[in-house]
Structures are given as C-alpha cells and as structure tokens.
Amino acid sequence: AQSVSQHNHHVILSEAASLELGCNYSYGGTVNLFWYVQYPGQHLQLLLKYFSGDPLVKGIKGFEAEFIKSKFSFNLRKPSVQWSDTAEYFCAVSGGSQGNLIFGKGTKLSVKP
Amino acid sequence: NAGVTQTPKFRVLKTGQSMTLLCAQDMNHEYMYWYRQDPGMGLRLIHYSVGEGTTAKGEVPDGYNVSRLKKQNFLLGLESAAPSQTSVYFCASSYGPSGGGYEQYFGPGTRLTVT
C-alpha cells in the first residue's frame, strides 16, 4: 500500500531562514507528487506538483521541490521564509494512472517575525 | 467562479443524529472527493466519485454514505453520528484523476462536532 511520511511535525523558523520539509513515499511504480498548503483558517491549495520531466519543480510564492526517485523523496524548499508562510504543509502522492491522493500527516511551519 | 463550496460551515450533532453535508463545484469537474482531517492524521479519503451517478469507497468509508446525482454536487451523509466522527470535512474536485497529474481543488471545510 502507498504511504507518505513527513518527518517534521512542527518546524519553527525565524524570518529569512531557509526551509526544507521532508517527504518520503512508498510506492514502486510511477508516481505523481504534490505539495499542498493550508494557511490558518483556510482551505488547502496547491503549492506545486511533479508529474513528469524536470525533477526540480518550482511552485508559487518562491517554493520549490526536488523529486529524487532513488530516495523516494520529494522535499519542499524555500531559500528565505516570511511570516506569511506560517501554515501547515501537506505532501501527497498518487500512484498509477487512476490513483487517488494519499496525504502525509502534515508539517506545521511557524515563522517568527 | 465560486470554485468548491460546502454547506454548512459548522454543525454540532448529538450521538445518533443524522445529517447531510453538501458539496458543490462550478468547474465542470468529473471527479469529486470527501476527506476528513483530524489533528496529526493529515487528510484521509472517505469516498469519491469519478462521474455523475458513480461513487466509490476510500480509505475510511465506514459510517458514511455518499451520492452524486448531479455532476456538480456530491453529498456526504452520516446516518447515525458518533463522537469518532468529530472532524473537519473537506470536499475536493478535479478534472481528472490525481494519477494523471490533475490538481484537486478544495472547499473551505465543514467543522462537525458530535457530542
């Protein structure tokens, strides 16, 4: 069965610090990978996704993620976080052409001004 | 476009009561989904639909039923609510399957408390 692991439950950073959130998945076949963000009191919205091609994916608001197939990883990065990045971040994977999304448990990011 | 809307936003039920959550989308999406979000658990798929008139079970379907009589609507029913169903419920829709790389668009959520 597919699964997604997000190793960091809560990350606290100061503004301008660099961010890397880990995401590992277990699935042996072709996968599609997504990062969603949930700002306080709001619904989930897509940050970025990997479907095929360049394993380095750029998303909205300066976020990027790198798909490393050999490590089954899709880590999210941002070189300099802002207070407005305070949110919960979810990694999700879909395996196979008809697969549904499997979400990780989420990582809460708190950015101190 | 309103996107994905959910009704109601909040609800408190007593154990054993029933209710229906309504999800509506105006993007002409084929696929619709119901998730529940619990602290520390992420989102878990309850039921989904790949088109009008179809439904399928997700990861945690027990205690819930769904219907997709119209393409734009996806209803989630709780026949006999239990405290374990206290959660935030999110509806989502997409043009195609996530396995095809299609993004899911989420509604604002319904916070349900069962006492």
Description:
The complex is a heterodimer of chains A (113) and B (115). Chain A has 113 residues and is mostly beta strands. In chain A, 0% of the residues lie in helices and 52% in strands. Chain A has no helices and twelve strands. Chain A has strands at 3-5, 10-14, 19-21, 24-26, 31-38, 45-50, 56-58, 64-68, 73-78, 87-95, 102-103, 107-112. In chain A, the strands form three sheets. In chain A, strands 2, 5, 6, 10, 11 and 12 form a six-stranded mixed sheet that branches. A four-stranded antiparallel sheet of chain A has the order 3-9-8-7, with no helix packed on it. A two-stranded antiparallel ribbon of chain A has the order 1-4. Chain B has 115 residues and is mainly beta. In chain B, 0% of the residues lie in helices and 50% in strands. Chain B has strands spanning 4-7, 10-13, 19-25, 31-38, 42-49, 56-57, 65-67, 73-78, 87-94, 105-106, 110-114. The chains are: A mainly beta (113), B mainly beta (115). At the A-B interface, strand 5, strand 6 and strand 10 of A face strand 5 of B.
**Alpha-beta classification of chain B:** mainly beta
- Which two protein chains have the largest interface (Cβ within 8 Å of the partner's Cβ), and how many residues from each? A-B, 27 and 24 residues
Termini of chain A, distance in Å? 41 Å
Uncertain stretches of 5 or more adjacent residues of chain A: none
Number of helices of chain A: 0
Instruction: Let me know the number of strands of chain A.
Output: 12
Largest β sheet strand count, sense and barrel closure of chain A: 6 strands, mixed
Radius of gyration of chain A: 13 Å
Radius of gyration of chain B: 13 Å
Average pLDDT metric of chain A? 93
Instruction: List the helices and strands of chain A in order.
Output: EEEEEEEEEEEE
